[in-house]
């Protein structure tokens, strides 16, 4: 089911959370809303779900305007950042909740509910936890139960608010790969909110970069990375260096977009080595250029020619090789 | 606060100055023994001074029984009403933002800072023979003051805040996400409240009800003003204790008092139990 | 009007409406009647009622005994809270549970029990009499009864705050070279003071209005051991409704001013 967001604005008292947002999400797509905290991404997600009412604008699901629809009738699966599992219910009862709340004539029998719940718990590989309470689960397990609970009512759309935000680094990486695979299998139109650009790039089909209540750019991960529409997007999607060219001109480039040499080469600038950090496959070198306050960080493969015997305080020659060259930037 | 963290704190404190620690603990025991335990024992010893027989005569006397009945009636009306009020007040205060919210919370707490005697007085001013509605009430042959309705009203007044006060912080801490999740999963308002909110606030609710019951049962000043002290008719148990005491029938007074004391101890046990469940709930929420 | 009403959590109108109606009918309108009744008196008459020597004596007695009782609890209560939070010892749980006894015990029962103990013939009263100290039927007895009924307030407000102060904070202060008393003065006191003031204010407000536990031990001698709530009762028994109302309003207004002052003090402490 496709989602259209049309001219949506939202204020909280004096704070402008969303300003005239327009967004089309195709059926079956997995889209990330990416941005810093306070950019309005969670508000947008909650408006799509029907948890907040926009001040202006419409939400359209598959051609039908659902703006006036009650949250129950939108058929949306929602996974909260802190999961919002019902703490007094077992895992089984949590997942069964949506089915049990159906009106009498649509409600399946307890037997059918039990089958359905176990099927979902198997899908998230946690069937063995059915009788536990949420407080007895790890963060990653709660996350998957929350997902199973949301999927139990067979939603047409799945919305996830910072789905991996509360997990530790290792579990987060496992789960996001798992979510991407799950999406491959069930192909449900899904939108998730994140502030982690790596997460958005790894999981999403398309990324919506937001800042201060507006959309900065919409595009595939490669597109927003390689062809950022603004300085904000460029900075937000990865580490960046700024090299001043004089006359208020500067260029931006990423740490790996650099050529290093021990000897003087054409167009290369002289810099002093301030720090050398081996980070595994790559090594990061911090450089100081005369007359520029901002330090430059360069990342090269660990066996790069320029590194042999290099110590702090020595001089290096470097040249930015930005993939995007854009006059003012 | 869980007992686990309490103990952890307590253990780490063992390294403190041992003399000061011993003195303070001894002080706590002294306060407990002299101030809390001794009055308890005095009530019991005075009650059974003339043996078990006199004790039972005093508490089984018809006036005592009718006082007990009236006390239970007042509790049975005041507590459920304040329970519904408490849930309603806590709901609108904790689930929504609106102007004047902090004023509302202050007003809910107001009966706590009004003397019980004034609580009784205001109903006399409204419904007494010379009160604002006095003439109208006597024309229609309705008696509120110096009758059971007045006692119930005064009891309600002094116990209004108890349930709300327990629920407001608890519900504010729990937030609205579980309710939102329930609605997204298709629950209607009533299903959401019954299946999600109520189980979550259950222990806070019980705790508030226990405190409310204790106060409703033991209220003296407010009830004293509106009661009229008619033996066997408008006397609650605490008022009955006063009458017996003022008649120098000390053994009977202490016998009835020991009945109230037993109820108070039961309430303390219930309170302890619901509080323990509540703190377990809170510590689980903290871990999330 | 600033509002943040979730479209999915129903019941705002219903619960707010019910809360306001219930509160108005049972609390606000009746309290309004109190102030309405005082308009039966002219200002001069009002002043005459409340400046009667008997009223002023009761006013002084009620507020001073409530103040001292709250102060005593401020000390004992803080120490009790400290002991209960920081130490494990035999009987800790039972003491912790019994702290609430004064809330659970009907005040009349507390009143006759304390009187039986502290009256000149009582267990403690007779010991005190031997050294020439009279407790029951004096302001001292009233203070004692008020200390009993308001005991839980300071303990129960200070206890959770004390439990929330991580032990590390004190240890960090100690590592920085602070002596135990300096730690108490600069680390614990500022953290506890707002809660302590709340407990103190609650105990004080309750003490001023308390009736049941006091009238047995007070002796109720006009000008000497007659508290304000009792004076209201006396006026009511004489069918002097306006007199009772005037004293009631006086009590409410003075309590309100004092609580406001404590509240302001608290805010000043919390926002340095």
Automatic annotation (TrEMBL), chain A:
Keywords: ATP-binding, Cell membrane, Membrane, Nucleotide-binding, Sulfate transport, Translocase, Transport
Cellular component per GO, a single term: ATP-binding cassette (ABC) transporter complex
Keyword Membrane: yes
Record-linked CDD domains: ABC_CysA_sulfate_importer
Positions of the ABC transporter domain: 3-237
Record InterPro entries: AAA+_ATPase, ABC_SmlMolc_Importer, ABC_transporter-like_ATP-bd, ABC_transporter-like_CS, Mo/tungstate-bd_C_term_dom, P-loop_NTPase, Sulph_transpt1, TOBE-like
Molecular function GO labels: ABC-type sulfate transporter activity; ATP binding; ATP hydrolysis activity
Domain of life where this protein originates: Bacteria
Coiled coil: none
PANTHER family: SPERMIDINE/PUTRESCINE IMPORT ATP-BINDING PROTEIN POTA, SPERMIDINE_PUTRESCINE IMPORT ATP-BINDING PROTEIN POTA
NCBIfam families to which the protein is assigned, alphabetical: 3a0106s01
Name by which UniProt lists this protein: Sulfate transport system ATP-binding protein
From TrEMBL, chain B:
Principal subcellular localisation of the protein: membrane
Pfam families referenced in this protein's UniProt entry, alphabetically: BPD_transp_1
Keywords: Cell inner membrane, Cell membrane, Membrane, Sulfate transport, Transmembrane, Transmembrane helix, Transport
Subcellular location per the Swiss-Prot or TrEMBL entry: Cell inner membrane
GO molecular function terms noted in the UniProt entry: ABC-type sulfate transporter activity
PROSITE patterns noted in UniProt: ABC_TM1
Statement: the UniProt record of this protein carries the keyword Lipoprotein: no
InterPro entries for this protein: CysW_permease, MetI-like, MetI-like_sf, Sulph_transpt2
Membrane-protein topology: Multi-pass membrane protein
Regions crossing the membrane: 23-44, 64-91, 103-124, 144-164, 205-230, 250-270
GO CC field: plasma membrane
Domain ABC transmembrane type-1: start-end pairs: 68-269
Subunit: The complex is composed of two ATP-binding proteins (CysA), two transmembrane proteins (CysT and CysW) and a solute-binding protein (CysP).
Its job: Part of the ABC transporter complex CysAWTP (TC 3.A.1.6.1) involved in sulfate/thiosulfate import. Probably responsible for the translocation of the substrate across the membrane.
Protein name (Swiss-Prot/TrEMBL): Sulfate transport system permease protein CysW
UniProtKB/TrEMBL annotation, chain C:
Pfam families noted in UniProt: BPD_transp_1 (PF00528)
GO cellular component: plasma membrane
GO MF annotations in UniProt: ABC-type sulfate transporter activity
Key words of the record: Membrane, Sulfate transport, Transmembrane, Transmembrane helix, Transport
Domain ABC transmembrane type-1 span(s) in chain numbering: 59-262
Gene3D superfamilies, per database record: MetI-like
InterPro entries per record: CysT_permease, MetI-like, MetI-like_sf, Sulph_transpt2
Primary site of residence: membrane
Residues passing through the membrane, by range: 12-36, 63-85, 97-119, 131-155, 187-205, 241-265
Cellular location(s): Cell membrane
Mode of membrane association: Multi-pass membrane protein
Entries under SUPFAM superfamilies matching the protein: MetI-like (SSF161098)
Subunit: The complex is composed of two ATP-binding proteins (CysA), two transmembrane proteins (CysT and CysW) and a solute-binding protein (CysP).
Family affiliation: Belongs to the binding-protein-dependent transport system permease family. CysTW subfamily.
Purpose: Part of the ABC transporter complex CysAWTP (TC 3.A.1.6.1) involved in sulfate/thiosulfate import. Probably responsible for the translocation of the substrate across the membrane. Part of the ABC transporter complex (TC 3.A.1.6.1) involved in sulfate/thiosulfate import.
Protein name: Sulfate transport system permease protein CysT
Natural source organism: Pseudomonas fluvialis
